[in-house]
Amino acid sequence: MTDQPPAPAPPPPPGDDRPSTPVPPAPAPPPPWTAPVPATPGQAPPPPTPSGRAPLPPPPAPSAGPAGYYPQEAYYAGWAPASAPPRRRGRRALAVTLVVVLVAAVLGGGGVVLGTWLQTRPLGDVTGPTSATSRQVRAGHCLAELPDDGTLGRVTVVPCDDPHDAEVVGQLDLGEGAWPGADKVRRRAEAWCEMDAAETEAGLRPVVWTPTERSWAQGDRLALCLAWDAG
Q1: Measured in whole angstroms, how far is the alpha carbon of residue 113 from the centre of its chain?
Q2: In the 8-state DSSP scheme, what is residue 165?
Q3: Residues 218-229: tens digit of each pLDDT
Q4: 178 lies in which domain range?
Q5: CB atoms within 10 A of CB 179
Q6: Is 148 a domain residue?
Q7: Is the C or the N end of the chain the one with fewer CB within 10 Å?
């Protein structure tokens, strides 16, 4: 037998006796990002986040406006402001026209009432020749001239100390009710307006003024008795 050197030992299986190489641990996941609080004037900017990224700038501030004002241009999902209804110019114009017509009617009616009042209010005492309507004349007034028979217009009232043709010596209230007719009104006034013997001997004659149908409708209820100097 011959001596032979011993066969080399087989290599160990991989990983059995090989020294292990250390593996560095995996980095931890970055924490969730939180918006930093905006720095006030004079304050240092916020430090970077642990992830190493610079923080995002803060959201823009709302547009400036007066105190208590909030912009109304932000719309929620699925909602939009309703469009403004169309302007109804026709109805508005009609309403304005009606108002103008009513005002004109009121002013016109007021003018008629005012004019009637000015022509019928009692005249009162006069200090000189004064033009007046027959419906303004009352007992105690004196007329510079007596108008002719017929529908009366304006007359001239003078102080009774001045020369005059006639004086109103009495007035009769004919009362309320429907228009009785011109003849009935005249007869009633003539029966009431009489001159006594002394007045008749002095040359005075009775004259009556009575309402017309038109003035009666306006509230005229006075009959006047005048003493006319026929001489």
Answers
A1: 25
A2: S
A3: 999 999 999 999
A4: 128-229
A5: 13
A6: yes
A7: N
